[in-house]
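ok trying again, last paste got cut off:
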Amino acid sequence: MRLSPIMSGYIGRQFASAFATVLMVILGIILLFDVIELIRRAAARPDLGIAPILLMAFFKLPQMLHTVLPFAVMIGAMVCFWRLTRTHELVVARAAGISAWQFITPVLFVAGIFGVFEITVFNPMAAAMYGRYERLQDELLANRPSAFDLSEGGLWLREPHNDGEMVVYSESVRQEGLVLHIKDAQFFLYDRPDHFHQRIAAESASLVDGTFEVRRAWVMEGGKPSVFLEQLRIPTQLTLSRIHDNFAAPETLSFWQLPGFIRFFERAGFTANKHRLYMQSLLASPVLYCGMVLMAAVFSLRPNTRSGGLLARIGAGVAAGFAVYFFSKVIYALGLSATLPQTLAAWTPPAFAGLIGLSGLFHLEDG
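nice, full thing came through this time. structure:
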């Protein structure tokens, strides 16, 4: 017997309602703990009010949603199936000849559609808000401005000094060993905040041992004629490792920006394993959500409410969800270290969750 569209829509709405409720509860808890942690970190800044802290927690929240979504999907599906079983709606559906696979399908469909919406529509907004959170964190809690930006538009470096700062820009950058080479470099020097002092336009420059070795440069300063220098050394506190540490985090880039950023990143000679893995994990997230639904069905379609059976199934379901989470972290670590290809590392956890759910359902329903 085929499941009617009305029944499919009803089951889909039940899951969407349970999923939204669980997600709101989880996000509320995360927001509370983030506010507490930010207040602790801001203890050394008595001049910092509560409003910036709440704003930072709000900007960080959408990015945290991607981390907790698999758990929210799984718990929401378990609540949905338990509710339908407790009210005997699934019992009646089974008696009418509808298999478990048929009434799981609407839930899988809703979870998959939400996964696609999350990476194509919600993710760009979350990335922009997380980027704003990191800038506020640097400026308010770390007392340092954002000093690095790398995109398809080129490289920007900003190094503050005691009295002023130096800004470096180049459209072409590449790494060779421990040396960073930049072409058509522009150095903007400020002798005090917001007061431009000098500009250096160079054909090329290299960052070596805390010094920019500039070649074929024009030095321009207000009120003075331009001076051409074949070579010039500019001291700096920037190092290659410090620049690496300040690369744009994958979470601050939207799904649509990641491919272009990765191409530019790799053309510059840097490794983009972290960004490539993050992009592949975004692509795999709808499959992961469907796998979590299948796992939820294993632990909730036939709950035994007597003799503590329900509590045991709840514990087993939560344990299975955490097992998938820790397994994914191990696999992602292998992907970041290039022990596994990034594509394989990103798609293994969804496949793992899906295979567990499928094997459990085959055993319970058809075994």
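cool. The chain has a mean pLDDT of 82. The radius of gyration is 27 Å.
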